[in-house]
Design a protein that fits this description.
The chain is an alpha/beta fold and about 425 residues long. It contains 16 helices and ten strands. The strands form two sheets. An eight-stranded parallel barrel has the order 1-2-3-4-5-6-9-10, surrounded by eight helices.
């Protein structure tokens, strides 16, 4: 399995990694499949996909079917896709008792592994309703993670690979502006690994323990709706040295919006699995906004899709996906709904009214060639690449290329070009 190969290469001192595509957006997945021949790691989170449907409305089986369909459309070999489950545990049911939340987490894990997910992030770091106040202690977290691993082993197979770790950044970015975050202390990390090992052995999971490939720690990166905390290699050198004595690498969450150089440094420092999600849908959103501006220039007012306004109206009508993240005056919050790096817009693309407006925009803009002058005006970062090709460009191709530009930073940082895994030229036809 390629994840095992990454661990071995890192142990030999070769900086190899893999991007983890944490998105269910079809354009993001198409871009990933057009940008790499494999292996491709695609992950779903417990909030996004679970036995009750999650916010995407998909169960684990539904998500696998969804990815297979996109792979077939793009002639991407499904066997080159590694499916991962992120933050698998009782996170969705934190308001319930430990008994209730963990029973639902048991079923969550079973459904994921039965559906064909092979990379499992065991995340029991959160306190449940009847746990003592304060942070959940590492012993309880380890005990619950081992319990879930036992469920996975019962319903899965030897292809399962595990990720552990309790220092897990908030999924989707920070909820408030932060000036800095603490890098994981190696003493705390050692205790996390020791407790996990004790509980795995107690549950008779010695063989499963050998298939733990990574641990989640905080390398000092984070982002929120209006800030990015860049990776500073000097702060994480103790972590980088510490993991060398284990057959594991680090999994880095919240790496969105890091520079290519920062991503390369992360991989060199043993942070070999790089999670990215909102940065990809943010790039897609940028493309949609640019195309909407072009539509406003060439389509008469009554025939426009008004996609930007439609998106904002959907967010106002259903604020549950952004209200905890955006703070400030009404004007500041309105700005963040449209442009925040947290990209809470990504929750609203499936909305029926948004889909109608989106499809209308594409139908309208596909009726005739997009003027090159307007691409230069509203999408200047990709205009030169497109013009150098000397081809007619469709709106769909523009959106794919915007996402691929972000993915290229990850692929280069992970040194995937050395394996021949990157398609050098994006397929536009």
């Amino acid at each position: 399995m390629y994840l095992d190969e990454i661990v071995k290469l890192q142990q030999r001192g070769e900086p190899r990694g893999i991007p983890s595509i944490c998105s269910a957006h079809p354009t993001v997945l198409r871009a990933a499949m057009q940008n790499i021949t494999g292996p491709l790691l695609i992950e779903a989170t417990c909030n996004q996909v679970n036995q009750f449907g999650g916010y995407t409305g998909r169960t684990p089986v539904d998500f696998v079917r969804f990815v297979k369909e996109i792979a077939q459309e793009n002639k991407f070999p499904f066997e080159n896709i590694i499916l991962g489950g992120d933050h698998l545990g009782p996170s969705v049911w934190q308001d319930e008792s430990a008994d209730s939340g963990m029973k639902k987490a048991d079923r969550l894990i079973r459904d994921y592994v039965e559906a064909g997910f092979t990379k499992v992030h065991l995340d029991c770091s959160m306190r449940l309703a009847d746990d003592p106040e304060g942070f959940l202690n590492v012993e309880t977290s380890a005990k619950r993670a081992a319990r879930l691993a036992k469920v996975a082993e019962t319903w899965g197979n030897e292809n399962l690979r595990y990720v552990i770790g309790t220092e897990v950044p908030l999924p989707g970015g920070a909820t408030e502006h932060e000036e800095g975050v603490n890098v994981t202390n190696v003493t705390d990390l050692q205790r996390t690994i020791e407790c996990a090992h004790e509980e795995f052995i107690h549950e008779g999971l010695e063989e499963a323990w050998e298939r733990i490939i990574a641990v989640v720690v905080q390398p000092g990166v984070e982002y929120g709706d209006d800030f990015v905390l860049p990776y500073v290699p000097d702060r994480a050198q103790e972590l980088s040295k510490f993991i060398k004595k284990y057959s594991m690498v680090y999994e880095a969450h919240s790496t969105d919006y890091q520079t290519r150089e920062a991503l390369k440094s992360l991989v060199q420092d043993k942070f070999a699995i790089l999670k990215v999600g909102p940065a990809l849908t943010f790039a897609f959103r940028e493309a949609v906004y640019g195309l909407a501006m072009i539509e406003n220039e060439i389509i008469k007012k009554g025939d426009r899709s008004n996609i930007i306004l439609t998106l904002d109206q959907a967010m106002i009508q259903r604020p549950e996906y952004w209200i905890k993240y955006y703070h400030g005056s009404d004007e500041e919050i309105a700005f963040k709904r449209k442009y925040s790096l947290s990209d809470r817009i990504r929750y609203y693309w499936p909305d029926a009214s948004v889909q109608q407006a989106y499809n209308q925009m594409l139908t309208t803009l596909n009726q005739f060639p997009i003027p090159t002058e307007l691409i230069k005006e509203y999408l200047p970062d990709i205009s030169k690449e497109l013009f150098d090709r000397g081809e007619l460009i469709t709106p769909e191709q523009i959106m794919l290329l915007k996402v691929i530009r972000v993915l290229d930073d990850y692929n280069q940082a992970c040194n995937l070009t050395r394996t021949g895994s990157i398609i050098a030229n994006t397929k536009l036809n």
